[in-house]
Amino acid sequence: MAAGPPSSPPYLPYGRQAIDEDDIAAVTAVLRGDWLTQGPTVTRFEHAFAEAVGARHAIACANGTAALHLACMALDLHPGDAVVVPSVTFLATANAARYCGAEVAFADVDPETGLMGRADAEAAIARAEAAGWRVRALAPVHFAGQAADLDALADLAEARGLAIIEDACHAVGSRRANRAGASIAIGACDRSAMACFSFHPVKTIAAGEGGMVTTNDDALARSLRRDVSHGMVRDPAAFQDRKAAFGADGGANPWYYEMPAPGYNYRLTDIHAALGLSQLGKLDRFVRRRADMVARYDERLAPLAPFIRHAGRSGGKPAWHLYVVLIDFAAPGRDRAAVMAALKAQGVGSQVHYIPVHHQPYYRERYGSLDLPGADGWYQACLSLPLFPAMTDGDVDRVVAALEHLIKA
Ligand SMILES: Cc1ncc(COP(=O)(O)O)c(C=O)c1O
């Protein structure tokens, strides 16, 4: 038989989901059942997630953006309030505050790790107060899966009477080392009001679209549950219009609900929850595989320093969402677009995480141009390389070989 054309190795995107037959069976079981939404699979996913991170409550929602918006609503943020947000993040962290009319006090980040530290947050608070805003919350981002320094930020928040909303969209399965050296799951909310997660397909576990907010605070949990479904209240103890709510026998009318203020339809469906729950069962394996690949990348890339070096590390036990390298793209012949195109030609995807959000036209128009040199330094150098559980060691080597080839060229 004649040999066919040599097949090129598969294209490696910077991230992608890992779905197997179990996941497919879990989703089809829901499709064959009675509840496509507002059913028991959402509740099971919430319980399993709360248990996995060690939080009292977990509230599932449509995506990570909805999770952040619900968290901002639960803090009752209003115009005149402000939230401190690191500029190196996805748009959603900042936009969630704006959905409530609150201002975004952009903070700088460490140009080696992409993380907001205490001094960065303090500088942002000072700028916000000079602008006349009332700072209400810090929203640290556990960038790439590595933990921000929550103890330092929580000390600051406590001293200033601020809440912390952790943007843990990158950090499903990550653990941080606290000051006493204990390993604590991100999402345990031991030093924050709430933590928000995303189950977008490039994240550590996938639900298609999906999000979760965890908290240990009963009142915040009630608010999150109310606003994830139109602001509807069904707890008789909370009814305001007693006459309409209760029948002659003193029992709550079975059809009755109240809406103290409008919420949203941010519900997760049971179809998505089935996939999320099934994936949650594989989280430890995914995290281990990601850690192995990160170790291999580190080792194989070491000889390419100082041209290419991996981004700085914050400690703890990250569930690596991204593998980011820092490259001096300002050096002659190392234009980033050309590097990305050359990698793509060799079947290697890459991405930039992120364009600092304060540079977005909407925010530039609102706040003018801000001087955040750490965020700009990060942006000028960062490049995310492929990292997902189905990659083989050979795939990692192929990415490194492609970079080596570029450097030699
Ligand atoms: C840091 C960060 N925050 C928030 C989000 C929003 O999550 P979702 O895409 O699920 O709405 C993302 C997702 O890309 C993210 O990376």
Automatic annotation (TrEMBL):
Keyword GTP-binding annotated: no
Membership in a protein family: Belongs to the DegT/DnrJ/EryC1 family.
Membrane-traversing stretches: none
Modified residue annotations for N6-(pyridoxal phosphate)lysine: 203
Keywords from the UniProt entry: Pyridoxal phosphate
Protein name according to UniProt: UDP-4-amino-4, 6-dideoxy-N-acetyl-beta-L-altrosamine transaminase
Gene3D superfamilies associated with the record: Aspartate Aminotransferase, domain 1, Type I PLP-dependent aspartate aminotransferase-like (Major domain)
